[in-house]
Write a structure and sequence with these properties.
Blueprint (H helix, E strand, L loop, with lengths): L1 E4 L4 H11 L4 E3 L17 H16 L3 E10 L6 E2 L10 H12 L6 E13 L2 E13 L15 E3 L11 H7 L1 H15 L1 H4 L5
Parallel strand pairs: 1-2, 1-3
Antiparallel strand pairs: 3-4, 3-5, 5-6, 6-7
């Protein structure tokens, strides 16, 4: 069985492939020479994940997962939230720069990452899965691994940011891992039904 990831973000795709290793065959749009542009204009992570998954599913006719992740910071009223990927207007570095600037001088730096996966098996069979991890925002960037907000996010109960962890360490505890494990568990539990549509 194959599962298409509705994303051009190579960092996310690498994570998903590593986490899913030996459980299911993961395809990226590059693997099937598919190029799709999607405007992430949903009001929620759920909206965006569904839009991605349905768009790619309709183009490729392969069972598809769409994913959207947001960083929610308490002192900023939940921002950047659903706008996390385009918060600073110029990529990962500008997103982190804006976040740290807006948090300057604030004592409460509590935050959490939330991931929503939409699994599209066919037009009428869609499932959603959530993963969440609590933590706080550091006062400066620490570490050079990972992507996105990893250098400024310190997971609760840990002494290193995501960007200081190896891929294996991060993938073992991340919000994306939690949500994706739910996807894989569901697929395995419903495998006989799903295989009718996902081959």
């Amino acid at each position: 069985m194959r599962l298409l990831v509705a994303s051009k973000n190579q960092g996310k795709i690498r994570e998903i492939k590593r986490i899913s290793k030996d459980r299911i065959e993961i395809l990226s749009p590059i693997d099937i020479t598919l190029d799709v542009d999607i405007l992430e204009d949903g009001k929620t992570l759920r909206d965006n994940s569904l839009k991605k998954a349905l768009t790619y599913f309709r183009k490729a006719n392969i069972c598809t997962i769409g994913e959207d992740t947001g960083l929610f910071v308490k002192a900023l009223g939940g921002k950047p939230g659903v706008f996390s990927a385009r918060y600073g207007g110029g990529g990962d570095q500008s997103n982190r720069y804006k976040l740290l600037a807006e948090l300057k001088g604030k004592k409460n730096r509590e935050a959490y990452f939330e991931t929503i996966f939409a699994l599209v098996i066919n037009e009428r069979w869609v499932e959603f899965f959530e993963g969440k991890i609590n933590g706080k925002i550091t006062e400066e960037e620490i570490g050079d691994k990972g992507f996105g907000y990893d250098p400024v996010f310190l997971p609760l109960g840990h002494k290193r940011t995501f960007a200081e962890m190896s891929d294996a360490e991060k993938n073992n505890i991340s919000h994306r891992r939690i949500a994706l494990e739910k996807v894989l568990d569901f697929i395995e539990a419903e495998q006989k039904k799903i295989e009718i549509f996902c081959k």
